[in-house]
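ARCHIVE RECORD
Type: protein–small molecule complex
Small molecule: iron/sulfur cluster
Source of inputs: curated submission
Record status: active
Notes field left blank by submitter.
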Amino acid sequence: MLDPVEKILQKEVLHKDEIITLIQLKPPYNSLLHQKASDVKEKSVGKVVYFRGLIEYSNRCSKSCYYCGIRSHNTLLKRYQLTDKEVIEAANYAHQNRFASIVIQSGEESSQKFITTIERLLGEIRQLTNGELHVTLSLGEQKEEAYRRWFDAGAQRYLLRIETSNPELYKRLHPVDKMHTYNRRLETLSLIKKVGYQTGTGVMIGLPFQTVEDLADDLIFFREMDIDMAGMGPYIEHEETPLFEYRNQLLPIQERLEISLNMVALLRIMMPNINIAATTAMQTIDPQGRERALLAGANVMMPNLTPLKYKESYLLYNNKPGLEDDAEESKESMEEEIRRAGDKIGYGEWGNSRHYELRIK
Ligand code: SAH
Ligand code: SF4
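STRUCTURE (tokenized, with ligand):
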């Protein structure tokens, strides 16, 4: 007789109750799920991991999300923004090391000056690298005009996590004002797709008040939004945030990691040809977190290229690893993790989302 997990895994389309069962599997019972995801990854996108050099451009933020260490209300933080020269140096490092892609991420700012600076940097990066370096942006919610200008200037991908697909939960994680609404987040995600970006989203896992049903809905949300890329990771508390108060109600940290890995595996099975990141938050919990994410279906890693002197000021959550690692060390530890997971590194390959390429055909 078939094992119940095996039985579910043979289904063509997973239903919510089945997703709920699989999300909650604990080791060693989730190994079958991870193995299936690994097989799906091999068949659909190959055992290749793409590097996206991460540039944490600025910690200036006009928003005040209750979970995030760089929220505007955190006055203990020194605010910074990289100089143009520092961004170009990081981009050059990525290009010379054949990463083929970078991610520019920052707090949310929407001034004309900010929009124009990013536009100019994109133009310079394109020129300096002969268009060989692809750029993902993760700069929060913006107006259509900004998204168009950045797309035209050479950004190909955009990441905007929905954070949770449950509007009620979203409300409890953000201040109640016009800048922090679920609807605005959702509409903005659709806008990003409309402008033509390879569109990525994601959620935090193990948030206060979040249920396993919410997590199943998150996966179904990704499927219905028909996204091209995903970045998900455990929620990790930060003491200078309002949600810190609920730290005693959270799942144990190791369980948050296991559920995150199960979410990655399920998403790979549900959406075989999207790109899925092995995120730093997983590594925060377990030195083998990212490697285990690769074995559960992830195919993207983000070596940190932020100049060392700024890293301490971009702490979205506690215990972020690699604060003392420079770009070289960050790259080397990831190369080792990828090797141990038995994957290859797609040096010099853009690693565009296959899902996106098929979607726009
Ligand atoms: N300002 C942009 C991008 C930077 S924040 C934006 O908000 O979209 C990038 C991501 O960090 C957020 O989407 C959120 O999912 C994650 N993050 C923030 N605080 C976190 C925490 N305490 N634990 C885990 N992830 C967190
Ligand atoms: Fe700002 Fe993004 Fe943090 Fe929210 S999650 S406070 S928008 S950096």
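CURATOR ANNOTATION: The radius of gyration is 19 Å.
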